[in-house]
Specification:
Layout lengths: L1 E5 L2 H18 L4 E4 L6 H12 L9 E4 L1 E3 L10 H8 L11 E2 L8 H14 L5 E4 L21 E4 L2 H7 L12 E4 L2 H5 L3 E6 L5 H9 L17 E6 H4 L5 H10 L8
Parallel strand pairs: 1-10, 2-3, 2-6, 3-5, 6-9, 9-10
Antiparallel strand pairs: 4-8, 7-8
Helix pairs in contact: 1-2
């Protein structure tokens, strides 16, 4: 696991977007895993700007998102399909037929989840999955207790996640308590994982996720077992990391990061 700390949220998001854009430029038929949430808005704004400036081409890119609320139609303004269209897909030259999210209205949930995993496998797997982290330590909606080998499934959300996300709903109590989520195992199958963590409110969970023991109580800790994970934080989210100075030394001196400093 590589850890990169940038001074601000903006710099962290820009670095994240550059890593993704460079990877797409290396392999135009890219299979990209995506996440939603407040943290990612700056990444998608930057990718949209890079696309507008002809610095990254999404025409052959295919995407799979981590999750979608059960019961929300794509047009619902809190559905993750709506979020993705608004923050990224409407702003870049991607073919929307190449963008995948679980169908929140699927009648047969088990089938929908199985077909989602199959569609990733049939495409040859995800090249890079962009993930965030929730206050519960989740990646996707894999809240505490979820198997670290889980595949795509419907999860019942914990109170921590409900409290974190219900503020976006009107009324807050209308937030669905269940959601489709790619499993921890689904994410671990990606060739590369890039995790973005920003803000003081994430400092405790970031330290536990990056430097604590691997546990299903914090599904993000499973990324410690992934052979190619880069975690990008701003100073505020990195405040409680024990090896902060070491991570900074590596970033400033390892030639592989030269183009990103
Ligand atoms: P946030 O959500 O970016 O809105 O903090 C991240 C998450 O819950 O995974």
């Amino acid at each position: 696991m590589e850890v990169i700390i940038r001074p601000t949220e903006e710099a962290a998001a820009k670095l994240t977007a550059k890593i993704i854009a460079d990877a797409i430029n290396d392999k135009p038929e890219f299979k990209l895993g995506l996440a939603t949430g407040a943290t990612m808005e700056a990444v998608y704004a930057e990718l949209s700007a890079l696309n507008k400036a002809n610095k990254v081409d999404f025409s052959q890119v295919r995407t799979w998102n981590l999750d979608e609320y059960v019961g929300l139609a794509p047009e619902h303004d809190q559905s993750y399909r709506y979020y993705m269209n608004k923050n990224l897909f409407n702003n870049v030259n991607i073919d929307k037929r190449n963008t995948h999210l679980p169908d929140g209205l699927a009648i047969n949930e088990e089938l929908e989840a199985a077909v989602y995993d199959e569609s990733i496998d049939e495409a040859g797997g995800i090249d890079l999955w962009l993930v965030g982290i929730g206050k519960s330590g989740h990646i996707g909606f894999n809240d505490p207790g979820t198997s670290l080998a889980s595949r795509t499934h419907v999860a019942y959300l914990t109170n921590t996640t409900y409290e974190q996300n219900k503020i976006y709903f009107n009324p807050p109590e209308s937030m669905p308590r269940r959601a489709f989520t790619a499993g921890v195992g689904t994410v671990l199958d990606a060739k590369k994982v890039v995790q973005l963590i920003t803000g003081e409110r994430k400092a405790d969970i970031a330290a536990a996720a990056i430097e604590g023991p691997i546990t299903s109580m914090i599904s993000s800790t499973a990324l410690q077992m992934h052979p190619d994970t880069v975690v990008i934080l701003d100073e505020a989210a990195a405040a409680k990391l024990k090896l902060r100075d070491f991570y900074n030394e590596v970033f400033m001196n390892d030639p592989k990061w030269e183009a990103y400093r």
